[in-house]
From TrEMBL:
Matching Pfam families: Tetraspanin
TM regions (residue ranges): 36-62, 68-92, 182-206
Keyword check for Signal: no
UniProt name for this protein: Tetraspanin
Keyword terms: Adaptive immunity, Cell membrane, Disulfide bond, Immunity, Lipid-binding, Membrane, Transmembrane, Transmembrane helix
Cystine crosslinks: C135-C170, C136-C154
Organism lineage string: Eukaryota, Metazoa, Chordata, Craniata, Vertebrata
4Fe-4S as UniProt keyword: no
A molecular function GO annotation: lipid binding
PANTHER family: CD81 ANTIGEN, TETRASPANIN
Localization in the cell: Basolateral cell membrane; Membrane
GO annotation, biological process: adaptive immune response; regulation of cell population proliferation
Length: 216
């Protein structure tokens, strides 16, 4: 059940419309940075393997098989080590992920401002960012005045003043998007780790109990 829940959360994060709209973008020959998906794929793998390993543990307990329970424990140790490694990787790269996406956005924004160049797709990329995140412009002076003179790039508001007041910079929105998603991944990883620790303890207790009872 825990494996199924983790798998479901990971698949939801993987196919979330906000992240997929942004991370599937392509600026010329350059693909949007999708390092974020590494953590998601690890969660998907852990959830799927947990479901299989959980079945192995249940079957081993029913059959009172020390071999199956020992295999179950070994698989859990390997999964736990992978999850700890993934957690460390996520903690180290959590700021870098948002930074890479912001750099990609800034490059697209600079190209979008060069309206005479029809050869690039910067405008389409920028509009996707703006519509998906409901923002307009980077975190600088140019970004602050963008709603005033490039309303073709920003989400449409009912009035001029509303467009100016409610528009927030995309750097802030990108930070909020990925910090929120990474927060969910962190919670899922902690829950799985706690469950795994209890599973390892209980599987060893049961295995030792079966071995001792077979002596008599």
């Amino acid at each position: 059940l825990a494996g199924g829940i983790i798998l479901g959360v990971a698949l939801w994060l993987r196919h979330d419309s906000q992240t997929t709209n942004i991370l599937y973008l392509q600026l010329g020959d350059k693909q949007a940075p999708n390092t974020f998906y590494v953590g998601i794929y690890i969660l998907i793998a852990v959830g799927a393997v947990m479901m299989f390993v959980g079945f192995l543990g249940c079957y081993g307990a029913i059959q009172e098989s020390q071999c199956l329970l020992g295999t179950f424990f070994t698989c859990l140790v390997i999964l736990f080590a992978c999850e700890v490694a993934a957690g460390i990787w996520g903690f180290v790269n959590k700021d870098q992920i948002a930074k890479d996406v912001k750099q990609f956005y800034d490059q697209a924004f600079q190209q979008a401002l060069m309206a005479d160049l029809d050869t690039n797709n910067g405008k389409a990329v920028v509009k996707t960012f703006h519509e998906t995140l409901d923002c307009c412009g980077p975190d600088n002076v140019i970004g602050a005045v963008t709603p005033l003179w490039r309303d073709d790039l920003c989400p449409k508001k009912d009035s001029f003043m509303k467009n100016l007041i409610e528009s927030s910079n995309c750097h802030k929105k990108i930070d909020e998007l990925f910090s929120g998603k990474l927060y969910l991944i962190g919670i899922a990883a902690i829950v799985v780790a706690v469950i795994m620790i209890f599973e390892m303890i209980l599987s060893m207790v049961l295995c030792c109990g079966i071995r001792n009872s077979s002596v008599y």
